[in-house]
Design goal:
heterodimer, A: alpha+beta, Gyrase A, domain 2, Cyclophilin, 2 domains, four-stranded antiparallel beta sheet, elongated, B: 283 residues, mainly beta, nine-stranded antiparallel beta sheet, seven-stranded mixed beta sheet, 3 helices, 18 strands
C-alpha cells in the first residue's frame, strides 16, 4: 500500500504518501479527499491536504481501527484517473519596485534585468497544490528554477495584502497583510480571500493560474474600482 | 447587552472554534483553555458552543445593560461585582447597570466569562471567535457594546464548583509522540523529556515559545498539516508549541502532539513558569 495511516491524536488521522513533491501524489490526494468526504460526510470535521499528506480531523469517539480499515479499503477502490474539474485563473500582478520591494535586489542577486524576472515569473502556468499557512494562501508549483532565491535572512513584520513573492523554490501570494520571509516582487489587486463570502477562497487545489503583468496605473485603477 | 468599560489584556470573544475551513488555511481559533470554557457554559446550563470572553492576566471591566446571569471560570483572580468581591466558578445574578471587573490573575493566567445563553456577536465562517483577517476586530475594544442572546431562563440552583488546581499549576504536560519524533537522535529524545522549559514572553494565541532550546534541531520537512497542540522543532533547536490560532500547515518537524487537556494546562501557565513534557502512549 503506498499510503500509511496513523492516528495522531484522538480525533486526528494523518494519511501519508511517499515523502516527496510529486504531481501524481497531488492527484491521488485530491481524489482520495473527495472520496472520503463523500463517504463520511458526517464524520469529517476538517480535511486538510498538503504536498504528500492528507489530514483528517474527525468527530470524537471515532473508532480508530475500524476507521483506518475503512480508509484503506476506500483507497483501493478510489479511481485516481477521473478528470479533475478545475479552473484556470489569470491573476493581474503589478511588478513595480514600489510594490515588489525586493525586485531590484533580486535582479542583482540573480543577475537578470527586472524585465527578465517579470517575463520568467509571468510565463509559466502554475498549479495550486493546496491552500495553507494563512487564510487563502496558495502553495503554487511551477516556478522557473532560474528564479529560485533564498528566503530573507530576517522576515518582514508586515507585508501588504496581495503581495506576490518568491521563497526558495516556491512562489505565492499573501492574501492578507501578514509577516513574511519571502522576496516580494509585485502585488495583485485581486482579493484571494474574503471571509464574508460563503465561498471565501478564490482558488482551489488543482486550479491553474498565470500571472498577467499590469502597469502601476492599471493596478491603481483596479484598486480604486473595488 | 453589555458594554466594555475597559478591555483588559488580549481579551477576545471566543467559542469552541471555527470548524470546516481548515482546508482554506483558516485557523481553528476558539478558547485556549477548553476545559475552563466548557465549565463556564456548563455552570449556566448553556449550549456547549456558546461564545464567552477570554482574557489574559487582566480581564475586562464590563457594564451590564440588562439583568442576566454570568459566571467566570479559569485562573484564580480578583473578581469584583459593583466593587464587592465575588467568587469565580459560581453563577452570579446580575442586575441592569451592574459592573463586573475581572482583575489580575493569581493562579493560572486565563479567564472565561460566560453569560446566560451566550453572546450574540457577529458570526464569521460559522464562529464568533475573533481572529485577525477573519473577523472585523481581533480583540475586544473599549466602549464596544456586545449583544447577548435573548433568554428568559431563570437559574434557581446556583451551581458552583471547586477549583481544580491541577489545571493551573501543572508541572508536567502530557504529550503524544508526533509524526517526526522518530527523526530525533537518542540524546535529543532524552533531553526533550528531561529538560524544563519556561514560557517566553513572545508567546501568543498562535504559538508558545520558550526560553530554552534543545541541543540539536531537525531538518525542515515538506510542508504538512499542523494543528493546535503540535510541538515543532526548528533546525536551530527551537521548540514551538502551536496554540489555538495556529496556522494550518507548516514546515518544521512535528515532534510531539498535545491533547486538548494538555493545551488547556499549558495555556494557563504564566510567562516564565517552568514545565516538562511527559510522554504518554497513543490514544
Amino acid at each position: 500500500m503506498p499510503i500509511n495511516i496513523q492516528q495522531i491524536e484522538q480525533s486526528c488521522f494523518l494519511i501519508a504518501w511517499k515523502n516527496e513533491i510529486n504531481p501524481n501524489t497531488s492527484r491521488e490526494i485530491y481524489h482520495f479527499n473527495k472520496a472520503i468526504l463523500k463517504l463520511f460526510p458526517d464524520l469529517i470535521i476538517d480535511s486538510v491536504p498538503a504536498y504528500c499528506c492528507l489530514t483528517l480531523y474527525v468527530n470524537h469517539g471515532t473508532k480508530a481501527k475500524i476507521f483506518i480499515g475503512e480508509l484503506l479499503e476506500l483507497y483501493q477502490n478510489t479511481d485516481f484517473y477521473t478528470e479533475i474539474k478545475s479552473s484556470h485563473w489569470k491573476i493581474p500582478v503589478c511588478y513595480h519596485p514600489s510594490l515588489g520591494l525586493d525586485l531590484i535586489s533580486l535582479s542583482k542577486k540573480l543577475n537578470f534585468t527586472v524585465d527578465q524576472i517579470i517575463s520568467l515569473h509571468s510565463s509559466p502556468i502554475y498549479t495550486v497544490d493546496f491552500i495553507g499557512f494563512l487564510p487563502g494562501f496558495p502553495y503554487l508549483s511551477g516556478l522557473n528554477k532560474k528564479l529560485q532565491a533564498p528566503r530573507l535572512s530576517s522576515p518582514r513584520v508586515r507585508v501588504k495584502k496581495g503581495s506576490v513573492a518568491i521563497g526558495s523554490s516556491q512562489t505565492g501570494i499573501y492574501p492578507l497583510e501578514s509577516p513574511a520571509g519571502w522576496n516580494l516582487i509585485g502585488n495583485t489587486p485581486i482579493d484571494l480571500f474574503d471571509s464574508k463570502k460563503s465561498n471565501p477562497c478564490l482558488l482551489s487545489p488543482m486550479d491553474t493560474l498565470k500571472f498577467t503583468p499590469i502597469s502601476l496605473s492599471q493596478y491603481q485603477s483596479i484598486c480604486t474600482n473595488d | 447587552m453589555i458594554k466594555i468599560l475597559s478591555a483588559g489584556y488580549c481579551s477576545s470573544i471566543q467559542d469552541a472554534g471555527r470548524f470546516g475551513f481548515r482546508h482554506l488555511g483558516v485557523p481553528v481559533s476558539g478558547c485556549m483553555d477548553l476545559t475552563s470554557y466548557n465549565l463556564a457554559n456548563a455552570l449556566l446550563n448553556n449550549s456547549p458552543t456558546c461564545s464567552v470572553i477570554e482574557s489574559t492576566y487582566i480581564g475586562p471591566r464590563i457594564q451590564f445593560l440588562a439583568s442576566t446571569y454570568v459566571t467566570v471560570t479559569g485562573a484564580q483572580c480578583q473578581l469584583l461585582l459593583n466593587s464587592h468581591c465575588v467568587s469565580i466558578n459560581t453563577v452570579l445574578s446580575i442586575k441592569k447597570g451592574d459592573i463586573l471587573e475581572v482583575g489580575k490573575t493569581r493562579l493560572g493566567c486565563r479567564n472565561y466569562l460566560s453569560i446566560l445563553d451566550g453572546f450574540n456577536h457577529e458570526k464569521t465562517l460559522n464562529s464568533q471567535s475573533q481572529y485577525k483577517g477573519i473577523t472585523r476586530y481581533s480583540q475586544l475594544q473599549k466602549n464596544h457594546v456586545i449583544s447577548t442572546n435573548q433568554s428568559d431562563r431563570l437559574i434557581r440552583n446556583r451551581a458552583s464548583v471547586q477549583l481544580n488546581k491541577q489545571l493551573f499549576n501543572s508541572y508536567l504536560i502530557p504529550a503524544l509522540k508526533g509524526p517526526e519524533f522518530s527523526l530525533l537522535n537518542k540524546q535529543t529524545k532524552t533531553k526533550l523529556f528531561s529538560q524544563s522549559f519556561s514560557l517566553s514572553s513572545q508567546s501568543n494565541r498562535m504559538a508558545f515559545l520558550f526560553n530554552q532550546d534543545l541541543p540539536a534541531g531537525t531538518d525542515e520537512i515538506i510542508t504538512s498539516s499542523v494543528q493546535p497542540g503540535t510541538v515543532q522543532l526548528t533546525p536551530s533547536g527551537k521548540v514551538i508549541v502551536l496554540m489555538r490560532d495556529a496556522q494550518t500547515t507548516g514546515g518544521y518537524a512535528r515532534i510531539l502532539q498535545l491533547t486538548n487537556l494538555a493545551i488547556s494546562q499549558l495555556s494557563q501557565l504564566p510567562v516564565n513558569s517552568k514545565f516538562r513534557f511527559m510522554p504518554i502512549k497513543k490514544p
